[in-house]
Amino acid sequence: MKYQYITLPLAVLLLSSCGTMKSVGTADNSVDMRHAQVKTNCEEVSRVYSGVQYDWCLFDSKRKNTPATLQLDPLWVNSIDLFFSAVADTLVLPYTLYQQSQHGNLTVEK
Q1: Which domain holds residue 45?
Q2: Cβ(74)–Cβ(58) under 8 Å?
Q3: Phi/psi class of residue 107: alpha, beta or left (left: φ > 0; alpha: ψ in -120 to 50)?
């Protein structure tokens, strides 16, 4: 019974700052925003606070007509991830400022 109090916070911690992880650690000049349930409208994302912008692009996206699956709703996950991405993006701000000045914006792969 005591595991139910650990499960949700652990899941939130493991999913935290997913947008930052997907956008900061890219080897090429693009970020992958392909998702099974939504199609993003974003063409490019700045490297500065890229995790927050990643999450915001998924918020501002068109829903696909997909059959129900066991996936989490991206809007619910992103509402939690937005806060953690802001914290993580602030921690890596010096690195992303340098990367932005050297390489420019990230292009979005749809």
Answers
A1: 4-109
A2: yes
A3: beta
Structural domain tally of the chain? Answer: 1
For the chain, list the strands marked E by DSSP: 30-32, 38-40, 44-45, 61-63, 106-109
Dihedral sign from CA coordinates of 82, 19, 12, 38: positive
Residue 71 Cα to chain centre, angstroms? 16
pTM, entire model: 0.74
Residue corresponding to tokens 């989490």: 72
Report the distance separating Cα 79 and Cα 16, nearest Å.
10
Burial class (CB in 10 A: 0-12, 13-18, 19+), 26: middle
For residue 5 the two structure tokens come to: 């109090």
- Does the pLDDT at position 65 exceed 90? no
Greater pLDDT, 14 or 61: 61
